[in-house]
Design goal:
two-stranded antiparallel ribbon, elongated, single chain, alpha/beta, DUF4365 domain-containing protein
């Protein structure tokens, strides 16, 4: 099952195909901005029963170089068979579309990025018939964007910076800059950035920082993460209200009661317990006949 970071690392290029040209300067190449872009089907399965699927496939066109394909792969760890699969993807796409094909691998840690960037060849050493040389975007070359003005200049790149630095100590400064920059952005622009960043940080300690920033700085947005945070906050306050009424009435609150109240995530049940807390003579009575 694919993880949220995996999806964010490649789907962000579907959201903004021009991102590749802006990222390329950090990868040692200089791709001009596209004058045309299209998202292509990612299924590379042939007539044989072997299924092959690239994460994201884009057809980009520049004024200087014409059309080419960009295959984007999100890679979370080293995989001994992946490089052969990548070579298959590139050669198949080249054959199917008759267009030059580039491969971009997006990583979140230095070890995987170093492995993914290795040049590999098929054939004897004297005859390297097919050579694979991927471009790699990761914490080793993506910018650390901690200035809100810099983040505001390219919100999608700032989101990718947060995603690729998810496991790095420097990551915390990026969500702070990004959330500040998003305060001025229209909701239609901000919502996808909020979601991509949340997905990309899903397995990072910075995920809680981003959730809190969204809840405080971007509370007026209706994204699912903002709604989820606000709901959690309302539930937490409801549980605290139940305990506060019991405490104010001078009732003893056993640890089992306190834990059960704090662990409840149903707002309706908490409202029932609150109503009973007003008249209960013992804390356990708030649970009624349950």
């Amino acid at each position: 099952m694919v993880s949220p970071p995996h999806e964010a690392m490649h789907r962000i290029f579907q959201h903004d195909p021009g991102l590749f040209s802006r990222v390329s300067r950090f990868l040692g190449v200089d791709m001009p901005p596209p004058v045309g872009a299209a998202i292509l089907p990612t299924d590379l399965t042939e007539a044989s029963p072997v299924e092959r699927r690239v994460d994201t496939l884009l057809r980009l066109e520049t004024a200087e170089q014409g059309a080419f394909l960009l295959a984007v792969e999100a890679q979370g760890k080293k995989h001994p068979e992946k490089q052969a699969s990548w070579a298959c993807y590139v050669s198949y796409l080249w054959t199917k579309y008759r267009l030059p094909t580039a491969l971009l691998v997006v990583c979140q840690d230095h070890t995987t990025a170093k492995w993914a960037g290795q040049q590999v060849s098929s054939g004897p050493a004297q005859v390297p018939t097919l050579t694979l040389r991927p471009l790699v975007a990761g914490p080793h070359n993506m910018p650390v964007i901690t200035d809100p003005e810099e983040a505001r200049a390219d919100l999608v790149l700032a989101s990718l910076a947060a995603i690729t630095h998810a496991a790095e100590p420097a990551v915390n400064g990026i969500p702070k800059a990004l959330s500040a920059a998003l305060q001025d952005a229209p909701e239609a622009v901000a919502d996808p950035i909020i979601e991509f960043t949340a997905q990309g940080l899903a397995r990072s300690p910075a995920k809680d920082l981003w959730r809190n920033l969204v809840a405080v700085d971007l509370s007026f947005y209706k994204s699912y993460i903002a709604e989820e945070i606000r709901t959690e906050g309302e539930i937490h306050r409801g549980a605290q209200d139940v305990l506060l009424v019991l405490e104010q009435r001078g009732l003893d609150i056993p640890d089992a009661v306190r834990s059960r109240v704090l662990e409840c995530h149903d707002p309706e049940i908490l409202r029932q317990w609150l109503a009973r807390a007003v008249i209960a003579t013992e804390a356990e009575q708030i649970f009624g006949d349950e």
